[in-house]
Amino acid sequence: xxxxxxxxxxxxxxxxxxxxxxxxxxxxxxxxxxxxxxVLLAYEATKELSxxxxxxxxxxxxxxxxKKLEDDTLCFMPILxxxxxxLAGMLDFVPTxxxxxxxxxxxxxxxxxQEYYFKAPDKLEKKLCIVLDPMxxxxxxxxxxxxxxxxxxxxxxxxxxxxAAPEGVKALSEAxxxxxxxxCSIDEGLDQKSYIVPGxxxxxxxxxxx
Length: 210
Ligand code: URA
Fold this sequence. Notes:
- The chain is of the alpha/beta class.
- The chain has one domain: Rossmann fold (3-Layer(aba) Sandwich).
- Helices cover 31% and strands 31% of the residues.
- The chain is built from six helices and 13 strands.
- The protein has helices at 11-21, 27-45, 87-93, 140-151, 166-175, 203-208, and strands spanning 5-7, 51-57, 63-69, 74-80, 98-99, 101-106, 113-119, 128-132, 135-136, 156-164, 180-186, 189-190, 196-197.
- Strands 1, 4, 5, 6, 7, 8, 9, 10 and 11 form a nine-stranded mixed β-sheet that branches. It has a two-stranded antiparallel ribbon with strand order 2-3. It has a two-stranded antiparallel ribbon with strand order 12-13.
- The two termini are 35 Å apart.
- 34% of the residues are buried.
- Residues 82, 135, 137, 195-196, 199, 202-204 line the site of uracil.
- One of its GO terms (biological process) is UMP salvage.
- Residues 8-210 form the Phosphoribosyltransferase domain.
- InterPro entries: PRTase-like, PRTase_dom, UPRT, UPRTase/APRTase.
- Its cofactor is Mg(2+).
């Protein structure tokens, strides 16, 4: 396994993923489990956030020194549309984080990933940016999105997804070796239509009911 890749290998993650893999799971449950797994991804992705000390006065007048997050250190960046599915769980875990958005789509003839929209918070260069997409399939859109986010000055990036294909992990690691990848699973591979096998199907369609 590549050093920049982390799989959350936990019995409850396997258990929850097993429900998501069932294509007949009702949308309400699909959304609920995606949210739960997003919280766990957020927990793993934020493990190294820096802290500052804060003095707190206790009821008896004594002072204790507690640790809290530095201000403005985190930005979630969903790759739309499907990446937005991970946002609610991420914000459940870190409600103070800022949020940017990026849309990349494949050009219909060249099949190259192209940026269509990019909106990011100020001082992006000072933040850890956690890029969100439930599926890392070929890696094309993740690579293009991260390229654009780096151009905006971001130095520290993590890519978080629910399910990855080995092909996508390899492509993303080669294109951006400095970016940590956190995923709940690395599946078998891609089918002829570049869907992940066994995967979750089209995660965006399942999450949005389209
Ligand atoms: N996008 C999806 O939603 N599912 C896949 O399997 C691959 C890309």
